[in-house]
Amino acid sequence: MIEDFSQQLLSWFDQHGRHDLPWQKQITPYRVWVSEIMLQQTQVTTVIPYYEKFIQRFPEIESLATAPLDEVLHYWSGLGYYARARNLHKCAQMVVNEFNSEFPDNIEQMIALPGIGRSTAGAIQSIAHNQRHPILDGNVKRVLARLYAIEGWPGIKKIENKLWQLADFHTPHERVADYTQAIMDLGATVCTRSKPRCQHCPGSVDCKAHRLGTETTFPEKKPKKILPVRKTALLVVTNKKGEVLLEKRPPTGIWGGLWSLPECDHDNGDTQLLNHWCRDNLGIQLDNIKYKPGFRHTFSHYHLDITPVSGQIRNNHSLRVEEKETFWYNVHQPDARGLATPVTQVLNELKQETKT
Ligand code: SF4
Questions:
Q1: What is the CATH number of domain 229-353?
Q2: To test ligand 1's pocket by mutation, which of 6, 139, 198 has the most ligand atoms within 8 angstroms of CB?
Q3: Distance of CA 38 from the midpoint of ligand 1 (Å)
């Protein structure tokens, strides 16, 4: 019976579930929280090395709260969705300052913290505080949508509410921490997005989608939108020492708070126009301007076609930049600062080109 799903799932977890993930050891609210934030939109195998380095550098909430944001972003570089890292830092400071460094054990207070939604709060409360709260992350949505063959995209409020009701219904009163880990694990390892392994699933006898043979049609996908394309040029401005100009992005917007190459609209190969832009925005002119092969970086809401443009700062010209933090970066001796993935890609290419 489908009512027995939680018991069947727990038996499956005891025998086949993963019990040695880094965040399953020395469980604390802090460690569970960091893992849950990293696991949003990112797979377990990708998260593991980031998590281990992060926890080594920031072993408890105080070390995270007192670290500069730049360093936190550095440890996040490559994971994407940087708002998660900025919120993590802000949240750590709030927990330290307002809750005496202990996560509140009241779920409403926890949901009020930056970057913590109902599902993340439920996971922390159930795994670290053993309180009965349901969770509904992407894995759980998929399992429940298939078990009950729920039609409609889970981004629609009515569908999401239905899934929350089912999540609550199946959350047991005993062994809630194990259940929470078990259902996430089932979604990640058995009830996978494109090739569910139903023969290994504890819920296969009752699963409606499996009975219908339509497992992968659930949950319904977000109605497709054609992503717009934006074009930009990233300037690789070098000085006499071969250092590259970086500037800090504003705290909000794409790559917020990260260090980036200066971004310029002129990507049409017109070096004169480009130098006008450099004069107006950086107070310099460039020599040896080269347009390099472009590449595409895709965000959730648009594609960004990036053309790197390199050039050397003209003799006797010095940077005049107002209202922006800038830094001359040595690609051969990089320091700990948060860089966006496409910027790292361009800098790595430069490093290869200038290898001695
Ligand atoms: S039977 Fe298959 S589709 Fe249904 S929950 Fe299990 S793995 Fe997912």
A1: 3.90.79.10
A2: 198
A3: 25
| CA 352 distance to own-chain centroid | 28
pLDDT, residue 223, reads: 86
For the chain, the domains span 2-217, 229-353
Strands annotated E in the chain:
229-238, 244-248, 259-260, 263-264, 286-291, 295-298, 303-313, 326-329
Q: How many CB atoms lie within 10 A of CB 125?
A: 25
List, for residues 121-158, the tens digit of each pLDDT value: 999 999 999 999 999 999 999 999 999 999 999 999 99
Residue 69 in contact with residue 93, Cβ under 8 Å? no
Give the global pTM: 0.78
Residues paired with residue 285 on neighbouring β-strands, in sequence order: none
Q: Residue 224 is which amino acid?
A: K
Q: Catalytic residue among 3, 36, 108, 151, which?
A: 36
Mutate to test the pocket of ligand 1, among 201, 205, 216 (most ligand atoms within 8 A of CB): 201
Does 36 participate in catalysis according to the annotation?
yes
Residue range 2-217, CATH number? 1.10.340.30
Listed residue (2, 6, 16, 7) closest to 197, CA to CA: 16
CA trace torsion 123, 126, 132, 137 (10° rounding): 20
CB within 6 Å of ligand 1 — which residues? 143, 146-147, 190-191, 196, 198, 201, 203-204, 207, 209-210, 215
CA distances to 203, 232, 286, 308, 310 from 293, in Å: 50, 13, 19, 7, 11
H/E element, 4: none
Q: Using CA positions, which residue lies closest to atom 4 of ligand 1?
A: 207
